[in-house]
Structures are given as structure tokens and as C-alpha cells.
Amino acid sequence: MAGNKTEERVLIVAPVGQDARAMAARLGEAGFTAEVCTGATDTHAAMAAGVGTLLLTEEALELSQFSELLLESLRAQPAWSEVPMIILTTGGETRLARLLELAASAAGSVTLLERPLAIATMLRSVEVALQSRRRQYQVRKLIQDTARLAAIIESSDDAIISKDLKGIIVTWNDGAERLFGYTAQEAIGRSITMVIPRDRLNEEPDILSRISRGERIQHYETVRQHKNGSLVNVSLAVSPIIDNDGRIMGASKIVRDITESKRAEAALHDHKLRLELALEAAQAASRAKDQFLATLSHELRTPLTPVLIAAAMLREDESLPAEVRSSLEMIEQNIELQAQMVDDLLDLSRITNNKLSFKMEPCDLHQILQRALEVCMASAKAKGVMVTLRLEASRRHLLGDPIRLQQVFWNLIQNAIKFTPEGGNISVSSHDERSQAVITVADTGRGIEPALLERIFEPFEQGHDRAGGKTLQGLGLGLAIARRFVAAHDGTLKADSKGRNQGATFTVRLEAELQPRGN
Predict the structure, then answer these.
(1) Are 364 and 327 in contact (CB under 8 A)?
(2) Comparing 68 with 204, which gets the higher pLDDT?
(3) Model confidence over 74-108: pLDDT tens digits?
(4) How far apart are CA 516 and CA 519, in angstroms?
(5) Residue 65 confidence (pLDDT) above 80
(6) CB–CB of 129/138 below 8 Å?
(7) What residue ranges of the chain are covered by domains with CATH 1.10.287.130?
(8) DSSP state of 199
(9) What confidence score (pLDDT) does residue 283 get?
């Protein structure tokens, strides 16, 4: 039998213990939970703990104080509870009159069974009594659920309002009072339009029309009005209220204050707009800078060429004094340095504007390395730096721009010479690694702090920290341009160093083949 056993107990009260035990045994065999009570006090205590029905003999009513305690227990029951009673009687007008008086006083369900009776009759009467009791328990649960729901509604931060199909407010919780400023006494019975601004009054007929059709409205963002006249940003969820016959009686509305989220949304939009404006300004400034660099580079490069040619021609004139020719050589070297800086600016401008072109053709990396080294040897000898070349790569053929690749290797070797003190060593080498040719330029110079290994490839980074705090000649564009040239050949350029005065190694990796293209 379903249900809570304590709440479905059959309490048997019979002065004759043998009768009580016999009835309990019969009920137990039929699947009921039965408990024998021997007097008024234990019956009263058992009823307080929970009871399904009472099964009494008329003799029990004659026990001392039994009727008084029984009536007290029955009257102490909650409003939903009417404990069913089954009284076994032997008949007689006097006894029946007394029992009917008790039944009227109990204001509950009383069934009189005349003894002797069939066991089946008793079992059927108990089952009917328990069915009645279970319906009472359903009512209790409904009352509890309703109370719980009411508590939830009242404690909700959201406004929870119900209204009829004419828009008249029926219920109004504490959340609604906090949101709109009206008490329940002020709001109930009035039209919901009291919280709708004049310019939005047309929303209510549309909402009621949709509710009348059985529609639900979710996340409807709008504006409502507080009692003090201030406007509140809200989100509405409106559902139809349907009765037991399926008819729509009204609407239940949950109103949430979204003022803060709207403020945050507006602040986010403003922030995004400012970022977009700042980005546009930065991009415009970057374009202007690139255009300026391109123009400046071109205008500087044009007059340098004739000056360089003139200085070289004069230096070859043996009729000039040695001091003058030495000065001309210094002028020539500085013009070449200036020309290289201008060329770097032009290359950076072309890279930034995606206008740098590459003339791809079959190349031999070893030949390119040797040409780059030949150009740098004079600088290495002048500084007293030893350069060794070890070319061991079998994969040295690729499709590339030989001029740009030579510029990469020239830059790496020149960098090594710049940062290696007199008496130091530079090693230029190549070897195979899977499908790649690996070219390294390693020096025993000042090294690079680990935190700067990536920063040195940024434009205008002169390697100030690498050089021990000394600012060097040049614009700091060589490595930035070299990395971009290598990337254009689908390769990589990386720097490694253990730190200051630990030397540095630059490694270029390029996909290469064993044989020249076309062979």
C-alpha cells in the first residue's frame, strides 16, 4: 500500500485486548499497517504522530476521559484534516444516540458498523476511510505548495504581478512594490497602465491580445514608470493564466529591472566606439608615417648617389694629399652607411604597404653565402675579427630572390662583426635538417639578454641593451627586414644567446632541395 506508513496507520482502540489483536492481525494480513492503543493517553499521542483512520469499539468510548481526549485530538487537527472514524457497535437506541452525538461533535467522517460483521466489510470500510484520508493529504500538499509558491513570490527580487484580461491588477508582490513604489493596497484593483509611460501605452493592448490567444511573451525589453515619475528599464516575461476548464483568465507577469545592465551595455558601446576611433586614428597615423618614410627615403637617396660617386673618384686621385684622401674615404664610408639606412627605410616602407616584390629564381644558398661574406670581409679584417666558413648542407638549392637572401646573410654577418670585439670569432655554417637547409651565424660577442631575443626583430630596435648600454649606429631595421625577407621564402629566422658576453647565434631555416630546379 502506497504512502507514509505512519500517516496511513489504522489505530485500533478496543478495551478487550484479544479483540484488538485479532483485528490488527486481520488488517496486517490484508496489507494495512495497524497499531493497537489500550487507552485514552496513548491514543491521543498516536494521533498526534500521524493517523490514517481510527477503528473503535463502542466500549472504548466508555473508557475514562477517552471521549474528551478524542474530541480534543480531533479538534486540534489542521483545517484540511478530518480523521475518518470507524465505530463498531452492537446497536441499541441509547448507544446509537450517543454515538451520533459524538459524530456530530467530531465534525468528521464517522462510519458505524454493527457487530457481528464480516471481515470483508471491515476491510472494505478501512480501505474507503484511507482513500478519504489520502485525498486529505493531497489537499495538504496543495496547500503547502501554494504557501511555498507564495513565499517564493513574496521574497523574489523581481516584480511578480497577475492581472485579468482587462489589465486590472489582481496580485502584487513585494518585488513589485520595490520596483514601482506602489504598495499592494494601492495597486490591486487598478489598471496596469499606471506603471506604463504615456508614450508606451500602445504596448498593453498588444500584450493582452497576444495573451488572449494563449501566447507567451519572453524577454520583452521596454520602459516602465515608478510612482515618483522616474523611468525604469525592464524586461518582461508574460504568460497566460489558465483555469481547470482550459479558459484563459488573465496573465502572470514577471518584471525584472535591467537598468544596471543597460548602463553597462551603453558604457561598453561607448568604450567600443572610442576604441574604434582610436584604432582609426592609429591606422591613419601609421599610414601617414609610412608615407612620410617612403617620401623621406626617396628624397634622401636621390642626392646621395652623385655625392658617393664624386667622393670615390676624388679618393682615386693620387695627386691629392694623403690626409685629404683619408678624409674622402671616411666621407665615402659614412655616405654608404647613410645610403644603407635609406635603403632599409625604403624596404620597411615597402614591407609595411605590401609593395615589396621578390624576383624568384633558382638559387644556390652556398653561392649566396659566399658573396655575402666577401662583402663583409673587409669590415671583419679592419676590426680584427676571425671569420670561418663551413658549408656542409647537401640541400642548398631553392627558388628564391638571391639579392634579398644575400641581404639577409650580409645583415647577419655584419651584425656579428658589429657586436664581436677585436680578437673574437665568427662562424658561418650550413647543414641539412630533414627537408631544410639550416644556416647559422654564430659569434663570441656581447650576447643578448634572453628577454630581448624577440625584441631585437622589431623595427627601430638598435640592440641598446645588447651593446651594454651603448647606442649604436643605424636605425635598428636590419634584423626586422631580414626576418620578413626569410618569411617571404617560407622560412624562419631565430636568435639564441645565453646572455650578456655569451655570444649569439642566428639561425635561418629554409626549405631546400638536393638538386637545382629543372635538373
Answers:
(1) no
(2) 204
(3) 878 888 888 898 888 876 655 656 656 665 555 56
(4) 6
(5) no
(6) no
(7) 263-352
(8) G
(9) 79
> Got the DSSP string for 86-111?
EEEE---HHHHHHHHHHHHHHTS-EE
pLDDT, tens only, 216-229: 999 899 999 999 99
List of residues 6+ apart from 488 with CB closer than 8 A: 356, 358, 401, 404
Domain ranges in the chain with CATH number 3.30.450.20: 157-257
Q: Are 332 and 305 in contact (CB under 8 A)?
A: no
Question: What pLDDT is recorded for position 182?
Answer: 95
Return the axis-axis angle of helices 93-106 and 66-75, rounded to nearest 10°: 30
- Domain 157-257 belongs to what topology? Beta-Lactamase (3.30.450)
pLDDT of residue 109 exceeding 70, the answer is yes
User: Cβ neighbours of residue 42 under 8 Å, at least 6 residues apart?
Assistant: none
Whole-structure pTM value: 0.43
At residue 404, the 3 state secondary structure works out as helix
Q: Which residues pair with 438 in a beta bridge?
A: 431, 509
Question: Rounded CA gap, 407 and 485, in Å?
Answer: 9
H/E segment holding residue 11: strand 10-13
CATH dotted code for 361-511: 3.30.565.10
Q: Which grid cell is 148?
A: 511555498
**193 close to 178: Cβ distance less than 8 angstroms:** no
For 10-152, CATH gives 3.40.50.2300
List the grid coordinates of 420: 664581436
- Parallel/antiparallel/unpaired status of strands 397-400 and 386-391: unpaired
Listed range (41-55, 134-148, 486-500) with the worst mean pLDDT: 134-148
In the chain, the percentage of residues whose pLDDT exceeds 70 is 82
The DSSP line for 159-185 is: EEEEEETT-BEEEE-HHHHHHH---HH
CA–CA separation, 457 and 468 (whole Å): 18
Q: In whole angstroms, what is the distance from residue 439 CA to residue 400 CA?
A: 15
Q: How many helices (H) and strands (E) does the chain have?
A: 13, 17
pLDDT of residue 341: 58
**Where in the chain do CATH 3.30.565.10 domains reside?**
361-511
C-beta atoms surrounding 222 within 10 Å: 16
Per DSSP bridges, beta strands 34-37 and 10-13 are parallel
More confident residue, 377 or 476: 377
pLDDT at 295 over 60: yes
CATH class for the domain made up of 263-352: mainly alpha
- Which of the two residues, 186 and 39, has the higher pLDDT score? 186
Q: Could you give the residue range(s) of every CATH 3.40.50.2300 domain in the chain?
A: 10-152
- 424 secondary structure, DSSP code: -
